[in-house]
Amino acid sequence: MDSAFSSADLSAIWLTFKLAAVVTVILLLVGTPIAWWLARTRSWWKGPVGAVVALPIVLPPTVIGFYLLVAMGPSGPLGQLTQSLGIGLLPFTFAGLVIASVFYSMPFVVQPLQNAFEAIPERALETAATLRASARDTFFSVVLPLAKPGFLTASVLGFAHTVGEFGVVLMIGGNIPDKTRVVSVQIYDHVEAMEYASAHWLSAGMVVFAFVVLLALYTLNPTGRRK
Amino acid sequence: MKFRPLFTLVVFVLTLFGFSMQSAHAGEKITIAAAADLKFALDEIVVLFNKTHPADRAETIYGSSGKFQTQIRQGAPFDLYFSADIAYPRALKEEGFTASEVQPYAVGRIVLWSTSRDAARMTLANLADPAIRKIAIANPKHAPYGKRAEEALKASGMWAKVEAKLVYGENVAQAAQFVQTGNAQAGIVALSLALSPELAKQGSYALIPDKLHQPLEQGFIVTRRAVDNPLAQAFARFMVSGEARAIMSRYGFVLPGKVE
After folding, report:
1. Nearest residue to B93 (alpha-carbon basis) of B225, B223, B234, B215
2. Which terminal CB of chain B, N or C, has fewer other CB atoms within 10 Å?
3. What is the C-alpha radius of gyration for chain A, rounded to an integer number of angstroms?
4. Confidence of residue B258 (pLDDT cuts 50, 70, 90)
């Protein structure tokens, strides 16, 4: 019997997980300060910044794909920056996909973190301050433990949403094996070429993956009324 | 009277449905699914056709030939199907999805196209130039123009030298768009796209000798669902008219029954 996944499928799976892992780590690093600021600020900018972060939820992936393709191109602002830094152009590269995915999955990391930070009572922070804890101490000994469920949700959603990305990748990826051909694109190609058996294996794998991830999230992180 | 939001919402949604069900006019309507290389040529032909049939309306959808074939098998509402590879409509004919013979309408050509350098002076051998970092072609797995591009690169002995630089468009129009935005420095696209007014002013091209690849024999069919639609038959006849053929040959298509 043929194995369920071809070597091209396996490399697409590996690439997808690599992309999602890199993007999740970057988003936790970048998203945490943004979420903290959004949760604590009284600035007039809170509304506009929150709206910009949430844009990818509402916008079609084609809008993000189109603008990134133009912006990262040789005459776009990002493209000119990367060229002057000697990196070259980003479309059709793994780095380009990482940047696109960071934009695209940002709200799925920032919003759970923001909710978690907002739920931390002001008193906990004040108590830490009266105990002369430094900002760093407060973050690691008070904020982080209290916001743990938020970090878990943010990581899982950021990872899963990057795995589920398709439109943006199709528009800026160029379908290159081991660099930009992720599972969702590989499935699309199988369907287009009428290789339904291969498409089924990968698609069913995605369904199982998505279910397990969400089940784990809801089990570890029950929402609603707590006992 | 008490305001009932749910009732209001239901009425509103039903009204919207009513509008969308209502046909805009009394005439016939056809939907044409066409390969991406026909984008500009068929648009012109359809404009002309609609002028001669003012009461009716023909609409076009462009995409990859393989995708449309799958969709027609699954009952997609297309009345005519123009494929960049005649093998696809032939398969549909055998499976009984058609209401006409498979009609060859053109032979396509592939060209080397670039917006950043003078492609008219280039050959496939120039693609080895390290300054050309990315080369866009349509996906050979399911796009006929991609298959022919791959064959030409292999036949010219360039495949091994350029394979690492290739990026794949979902169809030939996306491959052209990768070049147009400057993200790929060169591409192998359809002559019909390189000759379109939109793209012709932005780049230059060199024909790729057609002995390097299998012919891009293209064919169309009237689908089974349009068997009783006279407008679909009228459009099929219009495609072989002098006017339609003139437009096709202006876009670089070699027409059936005409020796180059």
Report:
1. B223
2. N
3. 20
4. low
pLDDT score at B26: 63
Task: Enumerate the domain spans of chain B.
Answer: 27-107+215-250, 109-212
C-beta atoms of B182 and A73 within 8 A:
yes
Q: Domains (ranges, CATH) in chain A?
A: 7-220 (1.10.3720.10)
Residue A131: the pLDDT is: 87
The closest of B97, B105, B102 to B87, measured between CA atoms, is B102
Out of A91, A175, A188, closest to residue B183 by CB: A91
> Taking the mean position of all CA atoms in its chain, how far away is CA A7?
26
Of A91, A170, A191, the CB nearest to B70: A191
Q: Which chain A residues touch B132 with a CB distance below 8 Å?
A: none
The pLDDT tens digits for A45-100 are: 999 999 999 999 999 999 999 999 999 999 899 999 999 998 888 999 999 999 99
> How many beta-carbon contacts under 8 Å exist across A and B?
58
Compare CB distances from B183 to A73, A188, A193 and report the shortest one's residue.
Answer: A73
Partner-chain contact B116 A170, CB within 8 Å: no
Instruction: Provide the shortest C-alpha distance from residue A191 to chain B (in Å).
Output: 8
Residues in A whose CB is inside 8 Å of some CB of B read 69-70, 72-75, 79, 88-89, 91-92, 170, 174-176, 188-189, 191-194
What CATH architecture is B27-107+215-250? 3-Layer(aba) Sandwich (3.40)
User: B109-212 sits in which CATH class?
Assistant: alpha beta
What does the pLDDT look like over A93-146, one tens digit per residue? Answer: 999 999 999 999 999 999 999 999 999 988 888 888 888 888 888 888 888 899
